[in-house]
Amino acid sequence: MSNSLFRKKSIAKIVKDAEQGFGDGHDAGGLHKILTVRDLTFMGIAAVVGAGIFSTIGTAAFNGGPGISLLFIITAVTCGFSALCYAEFASRVPIAGSAYTYAYVSFGELIAWIIGWALILEYAIGNIVVAISWSGYFNNLLMGLGVHLPGWLLNDPSTAFKNFTNATAELASGKTLTDDARQMFQGYISTWNSAPIVAGKHFFINLPAFIIVVLITTLAYIGIKESKKTTNFMVIFKILVIIFVIILGFFYVKPANWHPFLPNGFGGVLAGVSAVFYAYIGFDAISTTAEECRNPQRDLPRGMIYSLIICTILYILIALVLTGMVNYSELKVPDPLAYVFHKIDQKWISYIISISAVVATTSVMLVFQVGQPRIWMSMSRDGLLPKRFSEVHKKYKTPSYATIITGIVVGVPTLFMPMDMMTDLTSIGTLFAFVLVSAGVLLLPKNENRHGGFRLPYINGRFIVPILFIVFIYLMKDRIVTSAQNLGKDSLQEVLFLVYMLIGVILSSLTFIRSYSMIPILGVLSCAYLLIEIPAISWVWFFVWMAVGLVIYFFYGYRKSRLAAQQGNLKI
User: Fold this and answer.
1) Cis peptide bond prior to 386, omega within 30° of 0
2) Which of 15-24, 192-201, 346-355, 465-474 has the lowest mean pLDDT?
3) What is the dihedral of CA 316, 322, 325, 326, to 10 degrees?
4) What's 104's domain CATH number?
5) DSSP code of 293?
6) In this predicted structure, what is the pLDDT of residue 93?
7) Which residue intervals define the domain Cationic amino acid transporter C-terminal in the entry (predicted)?
8) What is the pTM of this model?
9) From residue 281, how far is each of 48, 258, 265, 444 by CA, in Å?
10) Contact 149, 142 (CB under 8 A)
11) Measured between alpha carbons, how far is 344 from 350 in angstroms, rounded to an integer?
């Protein structure tokens, strides 16, 4: 059974299937091949420059001060290792499916299913978070125009109840509150009390979040050409706004605010890892459009790398402007960009930023809503999901059924689900994919399907990787001791850290013995470290999610696998 669980698809077979059509009506040739390197770069920027630069950057700056700009560089390098590995795969395996397809080639079917299931966390659940964020930005925009929607149409039940409970406790505590705080708490109470009662319970839904998902899903259903044009327009708009904010903001920078550069030490900078990494999620989404690229082997790698470089430069400049305009301690707010200009009495700029935030999050949703159906389409072609998921619309040339299901999976939860924990779950799914893609490069056949395209540069890691890991051990010596001492105290976070250290020792040793390439090894180690920094409770839910996925695989995918039928292992 173990051999059948890890059966692999050859690159030559994948490319041949793509050229001849996948059979059973799964005709890849039905997809429009219209995307250029510019379109792919814009899609990458669209996926990356979203809620992160308009919201989570504030929390990261609050923890790390001006030094947060260093964390953007560190995170970009980390993502860069994975981006280069993605680029190698995209050049060798120019087929829709992203990390799922790459894992099928390098690790085999079971790991491919696991990563495909994890990608649902990145794309589908990630889009739930973005849609809820969009709703907040959109509501702020409406309020600026004097339009006030009822609170029960803007909140999920859990968040509304939590806000009501906290507000009631704060007002009853007798504490001295600012006028703004008192007004906010009274608003929470008023929202709860004014909500309609349905079946004896207060009724709350996030209607704007649901509506934007329906609209974006419709656009993704209609066609890649329309999605491309819309994405390009939104990217140009938000980049112009960000550049405008950077240039104007520098005139209000006070260099004194950059001192001290690391107010909470490097530990404070690292405390923003989760928030900063969330800002980078999505650059890999363009690999799902491989079959709609004019020249995927050349353009996909370029699009990934170009978008990552451009976004990193923008993030660093924004971080310096924010922390230069006001003291870092003031930036723990939901909308830091709008806040700093409001602080200097430039409210009209805050309004422009609010418009840009709505556009930016819309573009993120569009890219993710385009990406998810194409992963399901690839899994369906392989027999791991029902055939309907790989249906291509005769007129629009899109994976129609998969797009509709994606819309339902994302849209319905936005009505009533809170954002808590979902950001971390999205990060786990993404980092998990990054780790496997980086490791998978080491297992690729050396010369199979080499017809030009991107080639990952080989840098012998025999000495570099072990030395870097030894330095890491020295820097983390206190935590290693603490983790070992707390091992029996049911601390999942410490267990994850010690598992990471064990993996690091094994990979460093193997790299020394076998002279592995440095880039993929550092990609695995750096992304794996970011993984263990995610709160333990999110890992518990991730394991539950994986368990559900494995049940589905063994009851359906394992028996229906087309590769199994081709190899004569099973009948389907």
Assistant:
1) no
2) 15-24
3) -140
4) 1.20.1740.10
5) B
6) 79
7) 518-561
8) 0.81
9) 6, 28, 26, 25
10) yes
11) 10
